[in-house]
Amino acid sequence: MAANMIGQAVRIIAFDNEGSYMLMLKPEIVPLPKEKWKGTVIPLGIRSDSWYELEMQPLNEGGCNIALVRKAADPEIVHTPEEYNFPDSLYQDHWEKAEACGVVGQDGALLACIEVCPEESSD
Questions:
Q1: Region label for 7, one of left (φ > 0), alpha (ψ between -120 and 50) or beta (otherwise)
Q2: Tens digits of residue pLDDT in 43-72
Q3: Measured by CB atoms within 10 angstroms of the end CB, which terminus of the chain is less buried, N or C?
Q4: Using CA of residue 78, residue 82, residue 83, residue 88, what is the dihedral sign?
């Protein structure tokens, strides 16, 4: 039975750790104060086994057809933060009202995080 079927709330974090899946059970999620964590690099990488191609049929009396067609990527598409000089970090200046929480290891290293910021405008 799943935990929610027996009325038990359980915190679980699962992630890909450079090719091997990791699981954290009941991690302590704590606030990450801006004064301490501003500028901490978030090592976001991207891996994909596919990509999308836009296919468009020419305009005729019935209009035109546009489709996004999924294509296999061979080799796998991989982008690392090193390629872009580590652009993602906590509390960047343009996020004035950001707040962050995360999981910190016993050695003080950031293991997981989430950062949220209210939207100030909706153009």
A1: left
A2: 888 889 999 999 998 888 878 889 999 999
A3: C
A4: positive
DSSP-derived letter for residue 34 is H
Cβ neighbours around 99 below 10 Å, total: 15
Local structure of 116: helix, strand or coil:
strand
Q: What is the mean pLDDT of residues 6-33?
A: 81
CB neighbour list of residue 86: distance below 8 Å, 6 or more residues apart: 41, 43
Say how far apart CA 19 and CA 15 lie, in whole Å: 10
Interatomic CA distance for residues 79 and 55, integer angstroms: 25
Element (H, E) at 99: strand 99-104
Q: Output DSSP code: residue 61.
A: T
In terms of Cβ atoms closer than 10 Å to its own Cβ (0-12, 13-18, 19+), residue 102 is buried
Q: Which helix (H) or strand (E) holds 37?
A: helix 34-37
